[in-house]
């Protein structure tokens, strides 16, 4: 993974930074923790401008968040609830879990997007409740941009300041990212195996409430 990212950025420059950060938000296993520090290292070496790296990385991150936002907005809450109840074991949640999550998001939506963009894995997923809760595009772009700029700035600064030592640090980044992905995968498998469906009676009050 590290070799692919380094070679790609060396050849493609700012466009490569933008493309990889956009892809990282659509397909989370490509980690920004590897993309932006190396882009910062390339900037420290003089091959790229650090401001250009920050703009490209932030723009790519925000653009990459939009497909999930619009997908959730178009798919809608009701269809997601039905899907969750049909595929509850594999999604490891049901319609009641979705309702609770959305209620929490509606209370803290702006903060959730802002700080969610600073957390690995959550960075991508935070776009889904934003779309489902019909958060305005303007608000989503504003808070997503601020959070993304802070995240890309932190990672770029790390690569920029490390300079020549970055190659030594890179030996640990790739294995650590794989371990994190392995932990997330193991957690998902555990949730699937241990999932227990809620009693059917629990869904009755909500349906009656919705009819009323």
TrEMBL record:
Q: In which organism is this protein found?
A: Massilia haematophila
- A Pfam family that the UniProt record links to this protein: VTT_dom
What membrane topology does the UniProt entry give? Multi-pass membrane protein
Any transmembrane segments, and where?
12-30, 50-72, 140-160, 172-190
Keywords of the record? Cell membrane, Membrane, Transmembrane, Transmembrane helix
Domain (VTT): residue spans on this chain:
30-160
- InterPro entries, per database record: DedA_domain, VTT_dom
Which compartments does it reside in?
Answer: Cell membrane
What is the protein name for this chain?
A: DedA family protein
UniProt keyword Glycoprotein, yes or no: no
């Amino acid at each position: 993974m590290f070799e692919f990212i380094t070679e790609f950025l060396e050849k493609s420059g700012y466009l490569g930074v933008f493309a990889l950060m956009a892809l990282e938000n659509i397909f989370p296993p490509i980690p920004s923790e590897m993309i932006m520090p190396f882009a910062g290292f390339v900037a420290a070496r003089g091959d790229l401008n650090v401001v250009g790296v920050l703009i490209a990385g932030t723009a790519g991150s925000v653009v990459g968040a939009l497909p999930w936002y619009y997908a959730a907005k178009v798919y809608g809450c009701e269809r997601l609830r039905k899907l969750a109840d049909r595929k509850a074991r594999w999604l490891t949640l049901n319609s009641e879990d979705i309702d609770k999550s959305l209620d929490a998001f509606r209370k803290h939506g702006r903060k959730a997007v802002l700080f969610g963009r600073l957390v690995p894995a959550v960075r991508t997923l935070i776009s889904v409740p934003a779309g489902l809760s019909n958060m305005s595009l303007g608000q989503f772009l504003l808070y997503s941009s601020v959070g993304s700029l802070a995240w890309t700035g932190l990672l770029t600064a790390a690569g920029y300041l490390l300079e020549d030592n970055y190659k030594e640090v890179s030996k640990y980044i790739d294995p650590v990212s794989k371990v994190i992905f392995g932990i997330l995968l193991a957690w998902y498998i555990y949730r699937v195996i241990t999932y227990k469906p809620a009693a059917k009676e629990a869904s009755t009050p909500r349906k009656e409430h919705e009819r009323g």
